[in-house]
Protein backbone atom coordinates (compact mmCIF):
# COMPACT_ATOMS: atom_id res chain seq x y z
CA UNK A 1 0.00 0.00 0.00
CA UNK A 2 1.54 3.36 -0.99
CA UNK A 3 2.30 5.85 1.78
CA UNK A 4 3.80 9.31 2.04
CA UNK A 5 7.25 9.83 3.54
CA UNK A 6 7.48 11.21 7.09
CA UNK A 7 11.00 12.62 6.79
CA UNK A 8 10.21 14.39 3.52
CA UNK A 9 7.05 16.00 4.89
CA UNK A 10 8.82 17.04 8.08
CA UNK A 11 11.55 18.70 6.02
CA UNK A 12 8.96 20.57 3.96
CA UNK A 13 7.23 21.87 7.08
CA UNK A 14 10.52 23.02 8.63
CA UNK A 15 11.63 24.68 5.40
CA UNK A 16 8.48 26.72 4.86
CA UNK A 17 8.35 27.73 8.52
CA UNK A 18 11.38 29.93 7.78
CA UNK A 19 9.52 32.21 5.38
CA UNK A 20 8.21 35.03 7.54
CA UNK A 21 9.39 33.38 10.76
CA UNK A 22 8.81 35.37 13.94
CA UNK A 23 11.35 35.52 16.77
CA UNK A 24 9.04 33.83 19.25
CA UNK A 25 7.59 31.23 16.89
CA UNK A 26 4.96 31.23 14.19
CA UNK A 27 5.01 33.34 11.05
CA UNK A 28 3.82 36.58 9.54
CA UNK A 29 3.53 35.90 5.82
CA UNK A 30 1.02 38.32 4.38
CA UNK A 31 -0.12 37.74 0.83
CA UNK A 32 2.43 38.81 -1.81
CA UNK A 33 4.81 40.14 0.85
CA UNK A 34 8.53 39.40 0.40
CA UNK A 35 8.16 36.36 2.70
CA UNK A 36 5.18 35.04 0.72
CA UNK A 37 6.97 35.61 -2.59
CA UNK A 38 10.00 33.70 -1.27
CA UNK A 39 7.74 30.82 -0.25
CA UNK A 40 6.13 30.79 -3.70
CA UNK A 41 9.57 30.71 -5.31
CA UNK A 42 10.64 27.78 -3.11
CA UNK A 43 7.47 25.88 -3.92
CA UNK A 44 7.89 26.48 -7.64
CA UNK A 45 11.50 25.30 -7.48
CA UNK A 46 10.44 22.07 -5.78
CA UNK A 47 7.66 21.50 -8.29
CA UNK A 48 10.03 21.94 -11.23
CA UNK A 49 12.46 19.47 -9.62
CA UNK A 50 9.66 16.88 -9.61
CA UNK A 51 8.97 17.49 -13.29
CA UNK A 52 5.69 19.34 -12.74
CA UNK A 53 4.36 21.91 -15.17
CA UNK A 54 3.83 25.19 -13.26
CA UNK A 55 1.33 27.87 -14.30
CA UNK A 56 -0.10 31.02 -12.72
CA UNK A 57 -3.50 32.52 -13.44
CA UNK A 58 -4.60 36.15 -13.68
CA UNK A 59 -5.07 36.61 -9.93
CA UNK A 60 -1.90 34.85 -8.85
CA UNK A 61 -3.05 31.30 -8.10
CA UNK A 62 -0.37 28.65 -8.75
CA UNK A 63 -1.10 25.36 -10.52
CA UNK A 64 1.66 22.71 -10.57
CA UNK A 65 0.65 19.66 -12.57
CA UNK A 66 1.91 16.10 -12.93
CA UNK A 67 0.75 14.62 -16.22
CA UNK A 68 -1.61 11.66 -16.37
CA UNK A 69 -1.58 8.65 -18.67
CA UNK A 70 -4.87 9.63 -20.32
CA UNK A 71 -6.43 12.82 -21.64
CA UNK A 72 -8.72 13.42 -18.70
CA UNK A 73 -9.62 16.35 -16.44
CA UNK A 74 -7.21 17.15 -13.63
CA UNK A 75 -7.63 16.36 -9.94
CA UNK A 76 -6.61 19.35 -7.83
CA UNK A 77 -5.33 19.45 -4.25
CA UNK A 78 -4.04 22.39 -2.26
CA UNK A 79 -4.64 25.33 0.04
CA UNK A 80 -2.83 28.62 0.75
CA UNK A 81 0.56 29.76 2.05
CA UNK A 82 -0.25 33.30 3.22
CA UNK A 83 -0.85 33.86 6.93
CA UNK A 84 -2.40 36.29 9.34
CA UNK A 85 -0.13 38.53 11.43
CA UNK A 86 1.61 36.38 14.05
CA UNK A 87 0.01 33.26 12.62
CA UNK A 88 1.00 29.62 12.76
CA UNK A 89 3.10 27.30 10.61
CA UNK A 90 0.27 24.92 9.65
CA UNK A 91 -2.83 26.94 8.74
CA UNK A 92 -3.11 26.65 4.97
CA UNK A 93 0.54 25.76 4.45
CA UNK A 94 0.04 22.15 5.56
CA UNK A 95 -2.58 21.67 2.84
CA UNK A 96 -0.12 22.78 0.19
CA UNK A 97 2.78 20.75 1.56
CA UNK A 98 0.78 17.54 1.99
CA UNK A 99 -0.49 17.92 -1.58
CA UNK A 100 3.11 18.39 -2.73
CA UNK A 101 4.19 15.35 -0.71
CA UNK A 102 1.40 13.25 -2.25
CA UNK A 103 2.61 14.17 -5.72
CA UNK A 104 6.22 13.56 -4.73
CA UNK A 105 5.18 10.11 -3.50
CA UNK A 106 3.63 9.39 -6.89
CA UNK A 107 6.82 10.51 -8.62
CA UNK A 108 9.30 8.72 -6.32
CA UNK A 109 7.28 5.48 -6.24
CA UNK A 110 6.60 5.55 -10.00
CA UNK A 111 2.84 5.49 -9.43
CA UNK A 112 1.00 6.54 -12.58
CA UNK A 113 -2.41 8.17 -12.52
CA UNK A 114 -4.91 8.31 -15.36
CA UNK A 115 -5.78 11.89 -14.52
CA UNK A 116 -3.29 14.74 -14.31
CA UNK A 117 -2.80 15.81 -10.70
CA UNK A 118 -2.46 19.49 -9.80
CA UNK A 119 -1.07 21.08 -6.64
CA UNK A 120 -2.81 24.43 -6.11
CA UNK A 121 -1.77 27.46 -4.11
CA UNK A 122 -4.55 30.01 -3.59
CA UNK A 123 -3.55 33.67 -3.39
CA UNK A 124 -4.68 35.86 -0.49
CA UNK A 125 -6.85 33.34 1.35
CA UNK A 126 -6.49 35.02 4.72
CA UNK A 127 -7.37 38.52 3.58
CA UNK A 128 -5.02 39.87 6.24
CA UNK A 129 -3.33 42.25 3.80
CA UNK A 130 -6.00 42.60 1.13
CA UNK A 131 -9.64 42.18 2.23
CA UNK A 132 -11.76 40.10 1.85
CA UNK A 133 -10.59 36.63 2.82
CA UNK A 134 -10.67 33.87 0.18
CA UNK A 135 -10.33 36.57 -2.44
CA UNK A 136 -8.89 34.53 -5.32
CA UNK A 137 -11.23 31.57 -4.97
CA UNK A 138 -14.08 34.06 -4.69
CA UNK A 139 -13.14 35.62 -8.02
CA UNK A 140 -12.83 32.23 -9.72
CA UNK A 141 -16.27 31.14 -8.52
CA UNK A 142 -18.06 34.40 -9.25
CA UNK A 143 -18.40 35.62 -5.66
CA UNK A 144 -16.27 38.71 -6.23
CA UNK A 145 -15.57 40.98 -9.18
CA UNK A 146 -12.02 40.54 -10.46
CA UNK A 147 -11.64 44.26 -11.21
CA UNK A 148 -12.91 45.22 -7.77
CA UNK A 149 -10.52 42.81 -6.08
CA UNK A 150 -7.52 44.00 -8.09
CA UNK A 151 -8.30 47.52 -6.88
CA UNK A 152 -8.38 46.60 -3.17
CA UNK A 153 -5.57 48.38 -1.29
CA UNK A 154 -3.55 47.41 1.76
CA UNK A 155 -2.80 49.80 4.62
CA UNK A 156 0.07 51.33 2.64
CA UNK A 157 -2.11 52.12 -0.37
CA UNK A 158 -0.71 49.28 -2.52
CA UNK A 159 -3.43 47.58 -4.54
CA UNK A 160 -3.74 43.83 -4.95
CA UNK A 161 -3.20 44.27 -8.69
CA UNK A 162 -0.03 46.30 -8.13
CA UNK A 163 1.31 43.68 -5.71
CA UNK A 164 0.66 40.92 -8.26
CA UNK A 165 2.60 42.84 -10.90
CA UNK A 166 5.45 43.75 -8.55
CA UNK A 167 5.82 40.12 -7.47
CA UNK A 168 5.68 38.81 -11.06
CA UNK A 169 2.63 36.77 -10.04
CA UNK A 170 0.23 37.84 -12.78
CA UNK A 171 -0.35 34.95 -15.16
CA UNK A 172 -2.85 34.08 -17.89
CA UNK A 173 -6.63 34.26 -17.65
CA UNK A 174 -7.14 30.86 -19.29
CA UNK A 175 -5.12 29.07 -16.59
CA UNK A 176 -8.05 29.27 -14.18
CA UNK A 177 -9.72 26.39 -12.33
CA UNK A 178 -12.24 25.81 -15.12
CA UNK A 179 -14.83 23.11 -14.29
CA UNK A 180 -14.50 21.44 -17.69
CA UNK A 181 -10.77 20.94 -17.07
CA UNK A 182 -10.99 19.51 -13.55
CA UNK A 183 -12.60 16.46 -11.98
CA UNK A 184 -12.56 17.42 -8.29
CA UNK A 185 -10.80 19.42 -5.58
CA UNK A 186 -9.39 18.17 -2.25
CA UNK A 187 -8.10 20.33 0.58
CA UNK A 188 -6.34 19.17 3.73
CA UNK A 189 -6.30 21.64 6.62
CA UNK A 190 -5.69 21.85 10.33
CA UNK A 191 -8.98 21.84 12.21
CA UNK A 192 -8.33 25.20 13.93
CA UNK A 193 -10.54 24.02 16.78
CA UNK A 194 -10.46 21.57 19.71
CA UNK A 195 -12.85 18.80 18.67
CA UNK A 196 -10.38 16.28 17.24
CA UNK A 197 -7.78 16.91 19.93
CA UNK A 198 -10.33 16.68 22.75
CA UNK A 199 -11.69 13.38 21.43
CA UNK A 200 -8.26 11.90 20.62
CA UNK A 201 -9.16 11.57 16.95
CA UNK A 202 -6.76 11.73 14.01
CA UNK A 203 -8.95 12.69 11.06
CA UNK A 204 -11.88 15.03 10.62
CA UNK A 205 -14.17 14.10 7.74
CA UNK A 206 -15.62 17.48 6.88
CA UNK A 207 -19.27 17.51 5.84
CA UNK A 208 -19.24 21.21 5.03
CA UNK A 209 -18.64 24.78 6.20
CA UNK A 210 -21.18 26.41 8.48
CA UNK A 211 -23.21 29.38 7.39
CA UNK A 212 -22.84 32.69 9.15
CA UNK A 213 -24.33 36.12 9.53
CA UNK A 214 -22.53 39.29 10.47
CA UNK A 215 -24.27 42.39 11.81
CA UNK A 216 -23.19 45.85 12.94
CA UNK A 217 -25.10 47.32 15.87
CA UNK A 218 -24.72 51.04 16.56
CA UNK A 219 -25.70 53.02 19.64
CA UNK A 220 -26.25 56.73 18.94
CA UNK A 221 -25.79 58.99 21.99
CA UNK A 222 -24.65 62.51 22.74
CA UNK A 223 -21.08 63.59 23.44
CA UNK A 224 -20.67 65.70 26.55
CA UNK A 225 -18.20 66.53 29.29
CA UNK A 226 -17.34 63.57 31.49
CA UNK A 227 -17.00 65.64 34.65
CA UNK A 228 -19.96 68.03 34.45
CA UNK A 229 -22.85 65.98 33.05
CA UNK A 230 -25.12 64.41 35.68
CA UNK A 231 -25.52 60.63 35.30
CA UNK A 232 -29.30 60.78 34.85
CA UNK A 233 -28.95 63.19 31.94
CA UNK A 234 -26.36 61.25 29.98
CA UNK A 235 -26.85 59.64 26.62
CA UNK A 236 -23.87 57.31 26.94
CA UNK A 237 -23.52 55.28 23.74
CA UNK A 238 -21.03 52.86 25.31
CA UNK A 239 -23.40 52.03 28.15
CA UNK A 240 -26.24 51.48 25.66
CA UNK A 241 -24.05 49.30 23.46
CA UNK A 242 -22.96 47.21 26.44
CA UNK A 243 -26.59 46.58 27.33
CA UNK A 244 -27.22 45.38 23.78
CA UNK A 245 -24.23 43.03 23.97
CA UNK A 246 -25.48 41.53 27.22
CA UNK A 247 -29.01 41.13 25.85
CA UNK A 248 -27.75 39.41 22.71
CA UNK A 249 -25.35 37.20 24.64
CA UNK A 250 -28.15 35.95 26.88
CA UNK A 251 -30.77 35.44 24.15
CA UNK A 252 -28.48 33.90 21.52
CA UNK A 253 -27.03 31.56 24.12
CA UNK A 254 -30.42 29.93 24.55
CA UNK A 255 -30.95 29.04 20.88
CA UNK A 256 -28.75 25.98 20.24
CA UNK A 257 -25.58 24.56 21.83
CA UNK A 258 -23.84 24.37 18.44
CA UNK A 259 -24.39 28.07 17.69
CA UNK A 260 -21.23 30.14 18.13
CA UNK A 261 -21.26 33.92 18.19
CA UNK A 262 -18.67 36.63 18.76
CA UNK A 263 -18.62 40.37 19.41
CA UNK A 264 -15.18 40.83 17.93
CA UNK A 265 -14.94 44.46 16.86
CA UNK A 266 -15.92 47.62 18.71
CA UNK A 267 -15.46 51.26 17.73
CA UNK A 268 -16.05 53.99 20.29
CA UNK A 269 -16.29 57.66 19.30
CA UNK A 270 -14.61 59.96 20.16
CA UNK A 271 -12.67 57.47 22.32
CA UNK A 272 -11.36 60.14 24.69
CA UNK A 273 -11.42 59.55 28.44
CA UNK A 274 -12.91 62.95 29.28
CA UNK A 275 -15.81 62.75 26.82
CA UNK A 276 -19.01 60.70 27.03
CA UNK A 277 -19.13 58.51 23.91
CA UNK A 278 -21.64 59.68 21.31
CA UNK A 279 -21.43 56.66 19.02
CA UNK A 280 -20.42 53.05 19.62
CA UNK A 281 -20.49 50.35 16.96
CA UNK A 282 -19.90 46.65 17.54
CA UNK A 283 -19.97 43.57 15.36
CA UNK A 284 -21.83 40.32 15.81
CA UNK A 285 -20.52 37.20 14.05
CA UNK A 286 -22.83 34.16 14.40
CA UNK A 287 -22.26 30.71 12.82
CA UNK A 288 -24.29 27.52 12.50
CA UNK A 289 -24.82 24.86 9.85
CA UNK A 290 -28.64 25.09 9.93
CA UNK A 291 -30.27 28.04 8.12
CA UNK A 292 -33.22 27.95 10.53
CA UNK A 293 -30.89 28.60 13.49
CA UNK A 294 -29.31 31.57 11.74
CA UNK A 295 -32.78 32.91 11.04
CA UNK A 296 -33.43 32.81 14.78
CA UNK A 297 -30.27 34.84 15.26
CA UNK A 298 -31.48 37.42 12.76
CA UNK A 299 -34.86 37.68 14.50
CA UNK A 300 -33.21 38.31 17.85
CA UNK A 301 -30.83 40.94 16.44
CA UNK A 302 -33.66 42.67 14.61
CA UNK A 303 -35.73 42.64 17.80
CA UNK A 304 -33.30 44.86 19.70
CA UNK A 305 -35.17 47.88 21.04
CA UNK A 306 -34.99 51.07 18.99
CA UNK A 307 -33.88 52.94 22.11
CA UNK A 308 -31.78 51.84 25.09
CA UNK A 309 -30.36 53.96 27.93
CA UNK A 310 -31.53 57.18 26.23
CA UNK A 311 -29.69 56.19 23.02
CA UNK A 312 -31.07 55.25 19.63
CA UNK A 313 -30.08 51.77 18.43
CA UNK A 314 -29.63 50.84 14.76
CA UNK A 315 -28.90 47.43 13.24
CA UNK A 316 -27.34 46.77 9.85
CA UNK A 317 -26.43 43.50 8.14
CA UNK A 318 -22.74 43.59 7.18
CA UNK A 319 -22.67 40.32 5.22
CA UNK A 320 -23.66 36.68 5.39
CA UNK A 321 -22.96 33.32 3.81
CA UNK A 322 -24.97 30.15 3.44
CA UNK A 323 -23.79 26.80 4.74
CA UNK A 324 -21.78 24.80 2.21
CA UNK A 325 -22.15 21.02 2.00
CA UNK A 326 -19.26 19.21 0.35
CA UNK A 327 -19.84 16.60 -2.33
CA UNK A 328 -21.33 13.51 -0.59
CA UNK A 329 -19.40 11.05 -2.77
CA UNK A 330 -16.06 12.71 -2.00
CA UNK A 331 -16.90 12.96 1.70
CA UNK A 332 -17.67 9.23 1.65
CA UNK A 333 -14.30 8.50 0.00
CA UNK A 334 -12.47 10.44 2.72
CA UNK A 335 -14.38 8.50 5.40
CA UNK A 336 -13.70 5.17 3.67
CA UNK A 337 -9.97 5.80 3.51
CA UNK A 338 -9.69 7.05 7.08
CA UNK A 339 -11.44 3.86 8.20
CA UNK A 340 -9.38 1.61 5.92
CA UNK A 341 -6.12 3.10 7.21
CA UNK A 342 -7.25 2.58 10.79
CA UNK A 343 -7.27 6.27 11.76
CA UNK A 344 -9.84 7.29 14.42
CA UNK A 345 -12.14 9.84 12.80
CA UNK A 346 -15.49 11.57 12.87
CA UNK A 347 -17.67 13.77 10.71
CA UNK A 348 -17.72 17.47 11.56
CA UNK A 349 -18.40 20.89 10.11
CA UNK A 350 -15.86 23.65 9.70
CA UNK A 351 -16.59 26.84 11.60
CA UNK A 352 -13.88 28.66 9.64
CA UNK A 353 -14.04 29.57 5.97
CA UNK A 354 -11.88 27.83 3.37
CA UNK A 355 -11.32 28.08 -0.39
CA UNK A 356 -12.92 24.65 -0.78
CA UNK A 357 -16.32 26.06 0.21
CA UNK A 358 -16.26 28.36 -2.82
CA UNK A 359 -14.82 25.69 -5.13
CA UNK A 360 -17.69 23.38 -4.16
CA UNK A 361 -19.98 25.63 -6.18
CA UNK A 362 -18.21 24.69 -9.41
CA UNK A 363 -16.47 21.35 -8.68
CA UNK A 364 -17.07 18.38 -6.37
CA UNK A 365 -14.90 19.17 -3.33
CA UNK A 366 -14.00 17.74 0.05
CA UNK A 367 -11.81 18.60 3.03
CA UNK A 368 -9.70 16.54 5.42
CA UNK A 369 -8.97 17.91 8.88
CA UNK A 370 -6.09 16.99 11.17
CA UNK A 371 -5.97 17.99 14.86
CA UNK A 372 -4.83 21.36 16.15
CA UNK A 373 -3.08 20.80 19.48
CA UNK A 374 -5.04 22.57 22.19
CA UNK A 375 -7.46 23.77 19.54
CA UNK A 376 -5.08 26.67 18.84
CA UNK A 377 -4.77 28.39 15.46
CA UNK A 378 -3.96 31.84 14.07
CA UNK A 379 -1.25 32.13 16.70
CA UNK A 380 2.40 31.20 17.18
CA UNK A 381 1.51 28.17 19.35
CA UNK A 382 -0.44 26.54 16.51
CA UNK A 383 0.87 22.98 16.15
CA UNK A 384 -0.03 19.61 14.66
CA UNK A 385 2.15 16.57 15.37
CA UNK A 386 4.06 15.15 12.43
CA UNK A 387 2.32 11.81 12.99
CA UNK A 388 -1.09 13.45 12.56
CA UNK A 389 0.19 15.30 9.49
CA UNK A 390 1.30 11.99 7.98
CA UNK A 391 -2.06 10.37 8.70
CA UNK A 392 -3.86 13.21 6.97
CA UNK A 393 -1.49 13.08 4.00
CA UNK A 394 -2.05 9.33 3.62
CA UNK A 395 -5.83 9.84 3.61
CA UNK A 396 -5.31 12.52 0.97
CA UNK A 397 -3.15 10.17 -1.12
CA UNK A 398 -5.62 7.31 -1.06
CA UNK A 399 -8.62 9.55 -1.69
CA UNK A 400 -6.76 10.90 -4.72
CA UNK A 401 -6.11 7.36 -5.98
CA UNK A 402 -9.77 6.48 -5.54
CA UNK A 403 -10.76 9.57 -7.48
CA UNK A 404 -8.34 8.61 -10.21
CA UNK A 405 -10.41 5.47 -10.80
CA UNK A 406 -13.59 7.53 -11.28
CA UNK A 407 -15.05 8.63 -14.58
CA UNK A 408 -16.09 12.22 -15.22
CA UNK A 409 -19.69 11.68 -14.12
CA UNK A 410 -18.78 12.75 -10.59
CA UNK A 411 -18.49 16.36 -11.75
CA UNK A 412 -20.96 16.47 -14.68
CA UNK A 413 -23.76 18.17 -12.74
CA UNK A 414 -21.38 21.02 -11.87
CA UNK A 415 -20.49 21.96 -15.44
CA UNK A 416 -23.50 24.13 -16.21
CA UNK A 417 -22.88 26.06 -12.97
CA UNK A 418 -19.32 26.94 -13.89
CA UNK A 419 -19.99 27.98 -17.47
TrEMBL record:
Keywords: Hydrolase, Metal-binding, Zinc
Cofactor notes: Binds 2 Zn(2+) ions per subunit.
Protein name from the UniProt record: Allantoate amidohydrolase
Cofactors demanded by this protein: Zn(2+)
One GO MF term: hydrolase activity, acting on carbon-nitrogen (but not peptide) bonds, in linear amidines
Residues that, per the record, bind Zn(2+) 1: 80, 91, 189
Residue span(s) of domain Peptidase M20 dimerisation: 209-304
Alphabetized Pfam families for the sequence: M20_dimer, Peptidase_M20
Annotated family: Belongs to the peptidase M20 family.
Origin species: Candidatus Desulfovibrio kirbyi
Amino acid sequence: MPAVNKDRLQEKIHCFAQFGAEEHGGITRLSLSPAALAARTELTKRCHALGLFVETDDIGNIYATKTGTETLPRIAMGSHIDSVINGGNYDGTLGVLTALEVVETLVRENISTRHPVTVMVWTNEEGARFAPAMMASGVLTGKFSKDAMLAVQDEDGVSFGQALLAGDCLGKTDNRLNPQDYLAYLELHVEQGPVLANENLTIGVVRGVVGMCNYTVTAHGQANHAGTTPMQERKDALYAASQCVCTLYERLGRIDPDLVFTFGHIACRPNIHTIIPDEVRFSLDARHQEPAILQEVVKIVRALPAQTANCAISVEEAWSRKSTLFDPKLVALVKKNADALGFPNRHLYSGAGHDAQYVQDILPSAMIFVPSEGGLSHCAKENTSIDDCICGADVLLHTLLDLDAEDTSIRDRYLSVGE
